[in-house]
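DOMAIN: structural biology
WANTED: fold as tokens
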Amino acid sequence: MTEARFNIDLQNDQCIIRFSGDWQLGKAPDGESLCTALPADCKQVTLVLEDLGLWDSSLPAVLLTLARWCEQKGLILDSLSAPQSLQNLLRLATEIPSATPSRPAATKKLLQRFYDLAEMLGREISATLIFIGDAFIALRAWLTGKAKTRRSDIRFFIAQAGPQALPIVTLICVSVGMILAYLGSVQLRQLGAQVYVANLVAIGMVREMAPLMTAIIIAGRTGAAYAAQLGTMRANEEIDALKTMGISAMEFLVLPRLIALIFIMPLICIYANVIGLAGGAIVASGMDVSFKQYILQTQGAVNGGDIFSGMFKSLVFAILIAIAGCQAGLNCGRSSIAVGIATTSAVVRAIVYLVLADAMFNVLYDKLGI
């Protein structure tokens, strides 16, 4: 086995590289050393392989590195004297240009970044509005008896979102009622007005905490389940099968989930009100406030408008949770990783929708004097 080597001759801005010896793995020079050996004033590179002996994959690797280097420098590479098999390998490897790394996001102009962000938000808002419109069209079709929605599916999702969610709703709302009562008692005790802790708990639970906390619980529990269920169906091509059979996924899959939450959320909100008030009563009993006093103060603090405002909030929250979960599931990719991403996206979107909607409701109620 003779030693693998190359010689470079410069003739009128043309570099002639002569290969000789046996180019074998572990014995041949690398492509970097060949490229660095070329003169800087070289305009064209010509390969001469007449004295080439045995060769394996090491030689095409060197020539590919040389070809990429010539491409970057704008040089002409002449490999016509190479064996036909080597020319075929080199042509196959260089048919697709080398990837040029895109500019990192940090180097983009600030205005361009804001533009990209605004464009992405615009697409998301547009897609969400279209989805909401399709959902309400399907709901209208169900009200007129034209939707392909099974009653058994609605009953199933009502049971899933309602009775099965009561344990966690009970735990959270009792804790929230006790926390509100305890925080209020710290200040009211200084004024000798412990009895007004009932007013604080009643208003806080009925108007704000019960609708919002139950909505967050349902978003994390039921909204994520909707996204995972629909995302798995999409990954398994079950939704494509429904479309092939002419069945609307909006009517058959989304509408039962939406109707179930619309039915069950106001009821869960009422239950959360009662449980939260019971939690406040537990703390108030340790502040020398009798149960009768607590009930009387609660009745005086809460009226029908307060209860209705909280229930209306929960109704809107139900629609937002169903929209966020179902949209994330239907837009899911076709892999297990995509299902996980869709589930996370559903919970995050639902919570963002809930917080924004709650803030708008509070401003609206304040302006209307409700």
User: Anything to note?
Assistant: The mean pLDDT is 84. The longest helix spans residues 197-235. Strands lie at 5-11, 14-23, 44-55, 76-78. The chain has twelve helices and four strands.
